[in-house]
Amino acid sequence: MLHGTLWDKIPRFAVPVAATALLSQLFNAADIAVIGNFTGELRTVAVAAVGTNSSIISLIVNLFIGITLGANVTIAHAIGEKNDTMVHHAVHTSIVVAVLGGLIAAVIGELFAVPLLKQLNVPDDVFPLALLYLRIYLAGLPVILLYNFEAAVFRSVGETKIPLIALTASGVLNVILNLFFVAALHMSVDGVAIATVLSSAVSAAILWGFLLKTDKVIRLEPKKLRIDGLCLKQILRIGVPAGVQSAMFSIANIVIQGAINSLGTVVMAASSAAYNIEVITYDILNSFSQACTTFVGQNFSAGEIKRCKKTLLLCLLEGIISLGAAIALILFFGKSLLTIFNGDPQVVETGYIRLMLIMPSHLFSLCYEVLSGYLRGFEISLPPAVLTMLGVCGVRLSWLRWVFPQDKTFMNIMLVFPISLAATALLMLAAVLYFAVFPSRLDTSGSWLATAYGGQWTPEALKTELGVTTTSYLIQNGLLAVTLAPLANMIPAVGEEAGWRGYMMPRLKERFGLLNGRLLGGVIWGVWHWPLMLLVGYEYGTDYLGAPLLGLVVWCVVCFALNTLLDILYEKTESIWVPAIAHGAFNAIAALPQVLVTPADAYYNVLGPMPIGLIAALPMLAAAVWLTLREMKQEEKN
Prior knowledge:
Blueprint: H1 9-38, H2 43-52, H3 54-80, H4 84-119, H5 127-139, H6 141-156, H7 161-184, H8 189-213, H9 229-261, H10 265-301, H11 305-332, H12 334-341, H13 345-377, H14 382-403, H15 410-414, H16 416-437, H17 447-452, H18 459-466, H19 470-482, H20 484-512, H21 514-536, H22 549-573, H23 577-590, H24 618-637
Helix pairs in contact: 1-2, 1-7, 1-8, 1-10, 2-5, 2-10, 3-4, 3-6, 3-9, 3-10, 4-5, 4-6, 4-9, 5-8, 6-8, 7-8, 9-14, 10-11, 10-12, 10-13, 11-13, 12-13, 13-16, 14-16, 14-19, 14-23, 16-24, 20-21, 20-22, 20-23, 21-22, 22-23, 22-24
């Protein structure tokens, strides 16, 4: 990882990781396939019961998988620093955390299983089987999490084949047990749940054996199994934000699953079948994210910053090529693949709607997952989690609250996936792009907060006396930005939206065409703000780089990009409230990145890191241009 070419090493790391995850999903899909074909008249209900649990299970497992990334980075950094003692402590701490965390999660999950399923609006005919499957799966969490932490330990030293071998063996066993319990013993969802737990125990046992016998620095010695406080703090500091980032998806998806469940058993079964296919592409993109984290972690500790940047570019490029090929193949064979899980024509057609909308949007997922992995390799884990919370959780919850009730269809639910993934990718690209150009300006010491509090407190005093840190500020204000702030900001924003998007834009587009209308609309919106910018320093202040001319021009560019995206939302929904909420959310989110720079860097606000700066706004601008050109091509075809 520290020497030689990277273009070939990254795929050698990523392919076994992807294959491991793909095999895991295929074996999970075997659960659906077996109960969908061997449970007779109960097949649709049984498939729906397993599928409705996917969001709950993902919430728990993804939270801990995020923490495994903390273990991965901690061990990788220690290896890069040649600190064998730290490696030993981190390995043994990780194993103990896996088992204890699994036991705690299992107990809490069992206590809240019934209320969780009730929150998902699970139909009465599906509820008993869904509860049975969930309880059995939760009982197996200790061994399931143990395997994931053991695999993370191996990946930290670049060893990705051993976890693949373990999973292959346990996966074959899982399929055999599925057929035995369901086809031979005529069990239902309880049979596939028991098979999953038993096969997971086998995979954990196999990796345990390899860790005992390995001659590498990660060798496991049972007598040394204990929690090291320093290692635990480091693992949690990196892993918890990563886990929260993954959990945000699951929380939003639990809400989405509730909306899906309200549409009936057929839609539930279709969504469940499609989900088991679409995760294939997610596993591919996630493997490049893990590769980026591990390679950057070791090279950063060794002082090889140029190799870190090269790793990022290669992970994005090779990831796009691999993901694009997988998406094309799956969409081509999509309907045939869906029939494996359920042959009902209505289920197949509905499931293909989900595939068509979500699969291409995974290209956005690749961007922010790899960028998140890159930042985690530098031990920067909180900003990606906050941005994901804003882009995914905020957009999806707002969509289901305001847009879905207007048109309660499966298509309307599915539209939230590409929209939220694109929003998150844009936020992540904006942050990374600015700090990639100006890495020295990233400041997490709390100096901006100290100034914001009147300069009477030092960052250390704010932390000890008031409990205010950069982390707490981002979390608290991030939560406000996706909950109360969009609704509060919507009130003044709706006036602008009624005027700009509701009245002006339809007339400009009708007279000047789509592209020219949006360009002119953006300039008019920007110029309308100029008096405030010149008189009171609106947005950029009065003393900034290139003031005042550069600020006036950049603001018009930002207004064009934002105007285009808001106009598209209004076009697609025909509701002025949707762009008003989005406008309010943007206003709330825009100010958050300023806490990551020093007050002196306000001179460069016209460039970033807030999305109203020229560099940070480039992803939003690119999206606006691309979507407009795409619409123009569609108009030409029609």
